[in-house]
Design goal:
With 486 residues, the protein is of the alpha/beta class. The protein contains 15 helices and eleven strands. The two termini are 20 Å apart. It binds glutamine.
Length: 486
């Protein structure tokens, strides 16, 4: 069987429904390709062909019995932060190197209910902390477009696997930009939904008030199909939104005439690489041709996003990661004197440098006498940023700008300078602090041929409209159809 490894989810679904291909054939195709290319790219941490093929076979059997499901037999790879019963789940850390999940996260379960077949578990920055995938205990993921460059992070494996045609789609999580920034670096479409749309149950927690699950795919249409499967109320997540299921594909075909795009002047300043701005400006011209109008807006408090995030995220992480103590969960040191020494050594050995840095910052900002000065202040800034957006939506429907100020960089370029690394998320973090949906779609290349992403930020629960906007752009352009030559 010859299969186009860059077929979209929509095309794959259609081919399965027309019985042009079986789920087993598809699973074999992607597993073979992973066997061939993963040693060079390091996108997957764990493959389990036996499990994958038996899942695929069971979806083929369902189809032959006349059963239907929206994505029956479509393969998907999951970031290694999602628990899947019986699968090793490492979160990119030595701490969980040998941890086998005892139950399945809700998002993966919902996707399996929709008929999707798990291809494997994808590499990521350790505990999702990073913007380049260099913090993974399992080694960095290579960007399939240029293996001397980073794929972005923390969901770097999720982006690299889809960009290289090792999976038709993948899941990621986004706490400060970890879906959108790697989507830009690897020329993909990625969506972080409104906080509360996808259940966090069974996803290893980084910063609970910011974490959101979302899809990576080649197109906005695929993201809509995937979100249809992923989203839904879950009583086991206290922050899950209890609302009716919706069809995120429903508005894809709507013309863009009358769409008002807000362009925050704070996103178009000197901090951007000129090639990034040029590609974004050209994409905005396409949007204008499609009937949209642009209006300059201001988000005066977004300049506080990075500092607010680097108080909130480490604070919550320091609390969430306290469970990895070598007793309840995680790596246990072989030698120790007493129980306190056991905790100390286990955590010292199990966590990498970036995770330790975050735990130290988080413990500090939450400590007595500092809580009011840092955590409380950061909470107030979140409210101010949300108010900026509320005002903006009086004059625009969506907000756009570059996803990141510069494209994919070389390995090592920022690894020794955490602040430089943190600034890569300057445009993405605000949507996590406020809980709004945000996505990135391919929109061109800079003068070095490196990929640029357009970020679309929308009002709460406006995913269907944002996906419509990106889909219309993709009907008019072909940046999203470009694939690396590997
Ligand atoms: N790069 C950011 C960080 O290191 C965001 C990571 C994420 O979204 N998971 O925290």
């Amino acid at each position: 069987m010859s299969w186009n490894t860059f077929a979209t989810v929509a095309e794959t679904k259609a081919a399965l429904e027309a019985k042009q291909v079986s789920a087993v054939e598809l699973a074999k195709h992607y597993l073979d390709r992973a066997a061939q290319l993963n040693p060079g790219l390091n996108a997957y941490i764990t493959l389990n062909p036996e499990k994958t093929l038996s899942e695929a076979l069971s979806t083929d059997n369902k189809r032959s019995k006349g059963e239907v499901a929206p994505l029956l037999g479509v393969p998907i790879a999951h970031k290694d932060i999602y628990l899947i019963d019986g699968w090793r789940t490492t979160c990119g850390s030595k701490m969980l190197e040998n941890f086998v999940a005892p139950y399945t996260s809700t998002v993966v379960k919902y996707m399996a209910d929709a008929g999707m077949v798990t291809l494997g578990k994808l590499n990521m920055d350790e505990f999702a902390m990073g913007s380049s995938n260099e913090t993974s205990f399992f080694g960095p993921v290579k960007n399939p477009w240029d293996t001397s460059r980073v794929p972005g992070g923390s969901s770097g494996g999720s982006a690299a696997a889809v960009a290289a045609g090792l999976a038709p789609a993948s899941t990621g999580t986004d706490t400060g930009g970890s879906i959108r920034q790697p989507a830009m670096f690897c020329n993909l479409t990625g969506l972080k939904p409104t906080y509360g749309i996808c259940s966090r149950y069974g996803i290893i927690a980084f910063a609970s008030s910011l974490d959101q699950a979302g899809p990576f795919a080649q197109t906005a249409e695929d993201c809509a199909l995937l979100l249809n499967a992923m989203a839904g109320f879950d009583p086991r997540d206290a922050t899950s939104l209890d609302r009716a299921k919706e069809d995120y594909t429903r508005d894809l075909a709507k013309p863009l005439k009358g769409l008002r795009i807000g362009l925050p002047k704070e996103f178009f300043g000197e901090g951007n690489e000129p090639g990034v701005l040029k590609a974004v400006e050209a994409a905005l011209d396409v949007y204008r041709k499609l009937g949209a109008t642009t209006v300059e807006i201001t988000l005066p408090n977004v300049k506080y996003s990075v500092p607010a995030y680097y108080v909130v995220a480490p604070a919550e992480a320091s609390s969430n990661l306290s469970r990895f103590d070598g007793a309840r969960f995680g790596h246990r040191a072989k030698e120790y004197d007493d129980i306190v020494d056991m905790y100390k050594r286990s955590r010292a050995e199990g966590f990498g440098a970036e995770v330790k840095r975050r735990i130290l910052i988080g413990t500090y900002v939450l400590s007595h006498g500092y809580y009011d000065a840092y955590y409380l202040q950061a909470g107030k800034l979140r409210r101010l940023i949300a108010e900026d957006f509320k005002k903006a939506y009086e004059v625009c429907d969506v907000v756009m700008g570059p996803t990141a100020p510069e494209p994919s960089f070389q390995f090592g370029a920022k690894a020794d300078d955490p602040v430089k690394m943190y600034l890569n998320d300057i445009y993405t973090i605000c949507a996590n602090l406020t809980g709004q949906p945000a996505m990135s779609h391919p929109c061109g290349v800079d003068e070095n041929g490196l990929h640029v992403g357009m970020q679309i930020i929308g009002n709460y629960l406006d995913e269907a409209r944002m996906l419509n906007v990106a889909h219309q752009y993709q009907l008019a352009t072909d940046w999203h159809k470009k694939h690396p030559n590997i």
